[in-house]
Design a protein that fits this description.
alpha+beta, 32% strand, 9 helices, six-stranded antiparallel β-barrel
């Protein structure tokens, strides 16, 4: 699969399971230490902050997390070889970890974490303890404890572990990441390359950053963070944790001044469930979504290019029950505007399972409102399987304007592709560097619609494709188990 199209396929799948988090059973007391009310003050912009007191105060709450992986050979951990595609430059720190054997346990994975209450609950990244046979936690005073995994959530990359120290431990208070402002000073504490309790500082570079293939919207910071910082805290000048360091943008495997942290408010939403259930139960909207690009907006006659485009609605899902249709553009969820398609999974993810919410959407240029009740996830039931691609010569029912060739879907080909329908239109070839190729079409894609009109054979396709003149042709394409809208601008 081409790099460009694999990204489109990933993007189309990004919202497959728009997740909603069930409310965990409320604890008598919060699991984490509450942040003190406005303790201290933010240093004026014209004054450089002094991090000495912050480092001294929060340092004891930061821990070193090392693991002994189960069934993993030492040679399996290595530096990446060859060129890294831009998409893959967003990496969790462990992707670049070389084996560290600085602990007496000869652990093969090394990261950071922080204590959130005096009883010894520790937050870290899920990828830090992934596949761990044993977990070891080291405090700044040199004491080491065996960690017990309480709960984990790979989707948000958060894990909760517990150590039994036999006495009250220093805890880091959790702040409010929603109040974080771009340009605000922040400090990171962690164990980069095994150098435990290293302190670095910088500012918040941006908020609401989305990294392909990730559930979270990240805080971006230029505080220097490297492999081993993973799972450590990002701290504001009030001495409150406002993020969990989780990923870096790099071409070399080390810091390039662009780091990403999971907002602490998302973490707080999950802690009760991780403690009580060991996992986070999420709900299901039952749709595929994709970004509304300018080309898609033009093809669909939209005045503005924002929202989440519904590229498919799954059977027996809450969206189907609520009357949401393929081609709808969701512009508001529960009163909150949707600017980017990736915002929708996060908003749904913070909605209790069973709650009914209102969605505002655009359908054929008209504004509509629908009510949807979030239900439990069916993620395992809708895992898609990949289908191999095979390029055939560019010939047959050719469309030179779009740079593709189509043919009727035969029963034999339908069976080979695992399709239920035995008729339709299949892309038989794509002209290299042609309009369709640049738009991301593949041989063996099934064309379901042209300009929002269903097509059942190659003749119908040709008729509909020519009606738009020089405007972009909007194709609805089925690929594997997903459907996506693809606008193709005719050449010439």
């Amino acid at each position: 699969m081409s790099a460009s199209l694999s990204r489109i396929a990933r993007l189309a799948c990004a919202g497959l399971l728009l997740s909603a988090m069930a409310n965990g059973r409320a604890l008598a007391e919060p699991l984490w230490m509450e942040a003190p009310a406005q303790e201290g003050r933010v240093v004026p912009a014209q004054t450089l902050p002094d991090f000495i007191d912050l480092a001294a105060k929060l340092g004891p709450a930061v821990v070193n997390v090392s693991t002994e992986p189960a069934g993993r050979s030492e040679s399996s951990e290595s530096w990446p070889e060859g060129d890294i595609e831009p998409y893959h430059e967003f990496m969790p720190y462990h992707q670049f970890m070389e084996p560290f054997e600085h602990s007496p346990h000869h652990a093969k994975s090394l990261g950071s974490g922080f204590i959130i209450n005096k009883a010894g609950y520790v937050v870290t990244n899920e990828h830090v303890i992934e596949d761990a046979k044993e977990i070891h936690v080291s405090l700044r005073d040199g004491h080491q404890y065996k960690g017990r995994l309480i709960g984990r959530d790979a989707k948000s990359d958060i894990a909760l572990i517990k150590i039994d120290a036999g006495h009250d431990l220093m805890a880091a208070p959790l702040g409010n990441s929603d109040e974080l402002r771009v340009g605000e000073w922040v400090m990171a504490i962690g164990s980069p390359f095994g150098f435990d309790h290293s302190v670095t500082a910088g500012i918040v570079s941006a908020k609401g950053r989305f990294i392909p293939g990730n559930y979270d919207d990240f805080i971006q910071t230029d505080a220097s963070i490297n492999p081993g910082n993973s799972g450590g805290p990002l701290i504001n000048l009030r001495g409150q944790v406002i993020g969990v360091n989780a990923a870096i943008y790099t071409r070399t495997g080390v810091s390039m001044g662009i780091g990403f942290a999971i907002p602490v408010n998302l973490v707080k939403d999950e802690l009760d469930q991780l403690k009580n259930n060991g996992k986070v139960e999420r709900g299901w909207l039952g749709v595929y979504v994709q970004t509304v690009t300018p080309e898609l907006g033009e093809s669909m006659g939209l005045e503005e290019t924002h929202g989440a485009l519904i590229s498919d609605v799954l059977k027996n899902g809450p969206a189907k029950t609520a009357g949401i249709e393929r081609g709808d553009v969701v512009v508001s969820y529960d009163g909150k505007p949707i600017n980017d398609s990736q915002e929708l999974p996060l908003l749904v993810g913070r909605t209790p399972v069973g709650r009914t919410v209102k969605l505002k959407l655009i359908r054929k240029k008209e504004i509509k409102e629908v009510a949807v009740t979030i239900t439990p996830s069916h993620e395992e039931e809708v895992q898609k399987a990949s289908v191999s691609e095979e390029q055939t010569p560019f010939s047959g029912n050719e469309d030179p304007r779009l740079g593709l060739s189509v043919k009727n879907l035969t029963p034999d080909l339908a069976q080979e592709l695992g399709l239920k329908q035995s008729s339709g239109v299949v892309v038989s070839a794509v002209q290299p560097d042609g309009a369709a190729d640049k738009a991301g079409l593949h041989p063996r894609d099934i064309i379901l619609e042209v300009n929002r009109h269903k097509v059942s054979d190659a003749g119908a396709y040709q008729h509909e494709a020519r009606t738009g003149g020089d405007k972009s042709v909007l194709l609805l394409v089925k690929r594997d188990d997903i459907t996506i809208f693809i606008p193709v601008k005719p050449a010439g």
